[in-house]
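Name: Zinc-binding dehydrogenase
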Amino acid sequence: MRALVVDHTAPAHLALAEVPDPVPNPGESLVRVSAVSLNYGEVKGATDPQVPAGTVVGWDAVGEVVRAAADGTGPAVGAKVVTVGEQGWAELRAVRTARLGIVPDGADLGAVSTIPVAALTALHVLRRMGQVLGKRVLITGASGGVGRYAVQLAARAGAEVVAISRNPAHADELRSLGAHEVRTDPASVDRPVYGVLDNVGGRQMVDAFAAVQAEGVLISVGRSAEAEAVFPAEAFTPTDGRHDRAIRTFFLFGDPTTDFSADLTWLATQVALGSLDPGISWRGSWTRYDEASSALLEARLHGKAVLELD
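Structure predicted for Zinc-binding dehydrogenase:
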């Protein structure tokens, strides 16, 4: 089969190549992939010289089951599914049935391919915040993949959403997705927030934490700024009564036993219904992977990039 593999001699550190077909374990379905979406982490990771050449990368993929799991779990042959895992940018993917969801008939498969990492991360981070109904939630990197889904899901949960995007041109779109307030810098937020979903790190993370109220939480999910977050000493010795504030980290694959199937199915349904907007800003053949990955790494792409297999 063909797959996108790491190639450190290529400008995008990726290349299309022939690789062996995957052999599913008993608890895995074999899926013929029709579309994939890109995330900053995997594209950036491919540029790491320590990643061996020839490694198949990619977390998000959507397609059709061509061989059901031998242990009887998961959907039958012919089912359209959205999947999350590793080695997904290939014509065939072997994926655990706990990491695939059912896609409704007639859904735009390219749009659904944007769900796995971005929407699952947003959903699970918001759940970790607890009840957000009526509370202020701040989201940095709000115009990115995770950020867009987080704005929409937080608004649906009844939160007062404060969206941070460096580009003021995205303000109207973010408001249309449910943001109550849009700012270019968390340092300008003038009222405390209960929770923060931080996609950026660096100075934005420091300024976002400064806005957190007593017993609130900041959850760090990304470091797109590629800079250290240097906190002043007073950030942890407040004199204004804001105590018990927490900073937590999040990694979607932290618990390998997590079953994502129900969440993936629900999210796929919401995208198919038009209740969640995936925010696709680049879409094309997977033979144009270099264009999409370069746009993502150079911060010229906001939202999601989708590659369609042909």
